[in-house]
Amino acid sequence: MKIKISALIAFLLIFGCSNAQNLIQNVRISESGHSMEYENGKPFFWLGDTAWELFHRLKIEEIENYLDNRKEKGFNVIQCVVLAELDGVLVPNRYEHVPFLDNDPTRFNEDYFQLVDMVVKMAEKKGIYLAILPTWGDKVTLKYGGAGPVIFNEQNAFVYGELLGERYKGFNNIFWILGGDRPPADNDETWLSIYSPMAYGIDKGSGKKTLKSFHPGGFIWESSKMLQQEPWMDFNMIQSGHAKLDVPVWEFIKTDWNLKPSKPTMDAEPCYEDHPINPWNGWDPTKGYFRNWEVRRQIYRSVFAGGFGVTYGHHAIWQFFGPAYKAVNYPDRNWQAALDRPAAFQAGFLKDLILSRPSTNRIPAQALIKNQDTIENKNFMVAFTDNAKSYAMIYLPNNKSVKIYMKEFPSKRIKYSWFRPETGKIVRSKNIKTKGDLEFQVPDTNSKDWVLILDKIE
């Protein structure tokens, strides 16, 4: 029996989400070209969570509980997909609705899209942005696997984009993300003839109100390699992925940072918490899982290298794994049990740390570090400062020490503090005079990683 949700949605839209529109500010690219800000000029730090199957596998009550949990932890962006990866065209959502009539992307099934409508309004009311992929990449090409079916061509991609842009143009809490774990081109093949019309269709429908990007595959790494010069591409995304430990995401961020014209960049899919390490083609359990320390190392270093934000993910949550679904790549718990995993809290601590200082004018500052480990990525330290060099932060993914070239941070007196990423707490602060280069020893070698904060006093 099919379950209709139209009446429920109509009730909640009228009584639960009335006057919800414009409760959240639009986000724009800052003047530097490397960060984002609200329309009132205050800094916007993207702290995303990965919920690819949100519209496809959850009921509305579960969605609200999930959003509330993420908001409490400081997440302000949720990455989700209209046409989900796990057979999101042919397999109905939890209310037995598929997205289209006759699999035609220009003919919306209103019952399906009313759920999307409600989630957009619910998220807005909670102060949450949605980074929405119009489709997962397997609906564009099956070259890299997936359930498909391939339903897009140049003509219907534009119409589909226009319908989406028009439908949600009244909302400030949407980013549109093309792609979906696929490249825009590969050797002699290109799918830009589909992605670009879809992007321009969104622009036409929305009045080019919303910022757009492209979610690349983990083997392509950076969207910028092929899309930096595309007029519709507002900011870049990186996927450092789940194939190995300590992928040098700081190098990818550096590459994007130096491109012209300047566009913000971020790691939109680092290693998920509790994801098995490189599980493809048969998984060897001795490889283990990415746990909170491995996740912290990646998200901190991507942001400290110049990312305007970062997206966290949990392996059970992106797929909303539970008893009713076949497991994808060996999740070790269901999604409800994953909501309060350590790195989900620790990602929020990172956001609070960045926003504790001026953040729209952050710049990379690797020259500060005098004793960089150039052999093991696991120990690679990353630093940033601001244009005025009023403060600096250095992430130490180990329990060692850091030597600072003080000529890169000229000052007579500084306050230094140690921040513990595991707990989000400052554990030691002290004012000192500066003379020559300085070495700082971490306050407690039992903690695996630390952030050294330098604040200029004079």
Keywords:
TIM Barrel, Immunoglobulin-like, globular, six-stranded antiparallel beta sheet, alpha/beta, six-stranded parallel beta sheet, 458 residues, 12 helices
Summarize the structure in short.
The chain has 458 residues and is of the alpha/beta class. It is built from twelve helices and 23 strands.
Could you walk me through the main structural features you see in this protein, from its secondary elements to its overall organization?
The chain is an alpha/beta fold and 458 residues long. It has two domains: 350 residues, Alpha-Beta Barrel (TIM Barrel), CATH 3.20.20.80; 92 residues, Immunoglobulin-like (Sandwich), CATH 2.60.40. Helix content is 26%, strand content 22%. The protein has twelve helices and 23 strands. The strands form seven sheets. A six-stranded parallel sheet has the order 12-9-8-5-4-15. A six-stranded antiparallel sheet has the order 16-17-18-23-20-21, covered by helices on one side. It has a three-stranded antiparallel sheet with strand order 1-2-3, with no helix packed on it. Strand 17 and strand 18 form a beta hairpin. Helix 1 runs parallel beside helix 4 and helix 5 runs parallel beside helix 6. The longest helix has 16 residues. The radius of gyration is 22 Å and the shape is globular. The termini are far apart. About 3% of the residues have low confidence.
List the helices and strands and how they pair.
Layout: H1 6-15, E1 27-29, E2 36-38, E3 43-44, E4 46-50, H2 54-57, H3 60-72, E5 77-81, E6 100-101, E7 104-108, H4 110-125, E8 129-133, H5 154-167, E9 174-179, E10 185-186, E11 189-190, H6 192-206, E12 212-215, H7 224-227, E13 236-238, H8 249-257, E14 265-267, H9 292-304, E15 309-312, H10 315-318, H11 335-338, H12 342-355, E16 362-364, E17 382-386, E18 391-396, E19 401-404, E20 413-420, E21 425-433, E22 438-441, E23 450-456
Parallel strand pairs: 4-5, 4-15, 5-8, 8-9, 9-12, 13-14
Antiparallel strand pairs: 1-2, 2-3, 6-7, 10-11, 16-17, 17-18, 18-23, 19-22, 20-21, 20-23
